Amino acid sequence: MRLIIAFIIILLSVIPVSASDAEDSSTSKIPLNPPLQKGEISSPPLKKGGEGGFEQGLSDEGEGRYLQNIRQLTFEGINGEAYFSRDMEKIIFQSIRGDHPYYQIYTMDSDGSHQALISGNKGKTTCSYFRPDGKKIIYASTMHNPPLPPFDKGGKGGLETAPPKEERKYQWDFDPDMEIYEADPDGSNLKRLTSSDGYDAEGVYSNDGKKIVFTSQRDGDLEIYVMNADGTEQRRLTSSKGYDGGAFFSPDDKQIVFRAFRDLEKPRIAQIYIMDTEGKGERQITSAEAVNWAPYFHPSGKYIIFASNPESSRNFDLYVIRPDGTGLKRITYDEGFDGLPYFSPDGKKLLWTSSRSGGKSQIFIADWVYQE
Ligand SMILES: [Ca+2]
Ligand SMILES: [Ca+2]
Questions:
Q1: How much is the pTM?
Q2: Cα(217)–Cα(197) distance, rounded to whole angstroms?
Q3: In this structure, which ligand is nearest to the CA of 222?
């Protein structure tokens, strides 16, 4: 799902990140298409709130139209991909912190308190999600065949398992040992739901809790699959070349919104698509030449929020668009990364991952005051 690991890998692998790239105006000024209405992008650039300003609920006038009372919920390590429980009491997310070299799954209260590791420290994990009844969670993990810890630069007995960076630069890294697990909300009672020869992750429940939509590479290409919530009846929904993933159900569970990197000639381009839950009736709803990804329906069903980087390969911001492809509006204006958005079940709050506080990505929450 919205898979921050995959995202980072995409950045490292298909988007050359270098100083010269950042300064290349030909790649940093890709216009949105259809073009934004002037009034929609004319708000002033973000004024930084100053050190720690986000705790004070400061936001710029552009963002302030839609996001109020912005607060940073995580401060330790690298954090991302956060989702509410249905009762909005809890948030589940992934983090690299402490002695854990890879992302692990944590929960916290919705005010950022009581942050707790629930995935242990075995292998890599990603893509966690609450079942709507709050009694179970899912996440993806390599725990059945965990990689050795990464090279310890301090020379304290760590093992070098990863090839040098240069060799990894253009490599897709979808760990074939990544499988989807179910657990109790405290991480106990683990049950493995997938066992395919290939990456399985990006799992989310339907709103009725009966299905899980997920991404798998079991058939060679990265495709979207659906299964019953107990792991039975796994079947494929997409069959186009390229990375189809990051799927979520619509509020009525009749549609699935996802993103796909389908243009193999232009690996920097991803688009948002909607299909029905049988994989039929697929239609593309974005068209900007950018990485349009991490889509999620507002609980009203009236619009979809997603992340895109039309101005610069490095600056992702949040946008909304209607399911018919109209009504594109920009939401965030920070110069850092803003992505992986997720609405609270009541539609009144937004969780997202941002590097706006400087440096590493963190989880942010705001009041969502958008009027469709
Ligand atoms: Ca595919
Ligand atoms: Ca941004």
A1: 0.81
A2: 8
A3: 1
Ligand 2 centre distance from Cα of residue 102 (Å):
25
Q: What is the pLDDT of residues 270-324, one digit of tens each?
A: 999 999 999 999 999 999 999 999 999 999 999 999 999 998 888 999 999 999 9
Instruction: Compute the distance from residue 44 Cα to the ligand 1 centre, in Å.
Output: 39
Residue 68 Cα, ligand 2 centroid: separation in angstroms? 16
Name the CATH code of domain 4-17+36-368 (choices 3.40.50.2300, 3.60.15.10, 1.10.3720.10, 2.120.10.30): 2.120.10.30
Q: Using CA atoms, how far apart are residues 124 and 130, in angstroms rounded to an integer? A: 19
Q: 22 C-alpha to center of ligand 1: Å?
A: 29
pLDDT-derived band at 263, boundaries 50, 70, 90: very high
Residues with CB under 5 A from ligand 1 (ion): 221, 223, 244
Q: Is the pLDDT of residue 61 over 80?
A: no
Q: φ, ψ for residue 104 (rounded to 5)?
A: -125, 165
